[in-house]
Amino acid sequence: MKNKNLLIAGAVIVVLIFGAYRFFVGNYNSIVAYDEAVEASWAQVQNQYQRRLDLIPNLVATVKGYATHEHDTFVQVTQARAAAEGVAGAGVPKNAQEMESVQAAQNSLTMGVRSLLAVAENYPELKANQNFLALQDQLEGTENRIAVARQDYNKAVQKYNTFIRTFPQSVIASRRGFEKRPQFAASQEAQSAPKVEF
Q: How many whole angstroms separate alpha carbon 198 and alpha carbon 191?
């Protein structure tokens, strides 16, 4: 009888140890999967940023052919592109400051492209140019893709952050070095409606 009780107690201990192991491993693997989803989503954002970076030199060259005296605008776009390219390969932002740096560089690039397109408004023959129209369409499509990629990234970050901040995953995440990831947020300019004057 005593051997039977020892055998049962041993089996219970083995089951408890196995259950705890499965619980830890399962939660850890889920955290890793969510973290990888964030990485993949960020790669798609970077992919779309790169697409925009690749289109801009062609747009600048096309506009330059018509608007040779708009030197300041060309310099602004070129500098903004270089700044955006500099933060593009840095990987997933680990904190709010890194995300702000990425967003600032991308916002500067967006403003530069808008300036370039505004210059094009002064040149009717440029606005009718097929290459310019095709580039403009591609840039518009790329901006839409960037918006979708950012939205997907934010969803992946939300799932990851929620998972690592709930108990008991929070214990595992903190012990293994998984930290909350920043999301994209609208810029300050987007917080207020633009003033329209006639």
A: 22
* Helices and strands, number each (H, E), in the chain: 6, 0
106-116 confidence digits (pLDDT tens) = 888 888 888 88
Helix (H, G, I), strand (E, B) or coil at 68: coil
Residue numbers in the chain where pLDDT is lower than 50: 190-198
Tell which residue, 75, 71, 73, has the closest CA to residue 117: 73
Nearest to 136 by CA among 72, 58, 83, 66: 58
Contacts 24+ apart (CB under 8 A), 143-148: 143/52, 143/110, 145/48, 145/51, 146/45, 146/48, 146/49, 146/52
Mean pLDDT for the chain? 82
Structure tokens at 122: 């002064």
What's the rounded Cα separation, in Å, for the pair 161 and 10? Answer: 39
Per-residue pLDDT, 187: 61
What does residue 56 show for φ and ψ, rounded to 5 degrees?
A: -60, -45
Contact 131, 51 (CB under 8 A): no
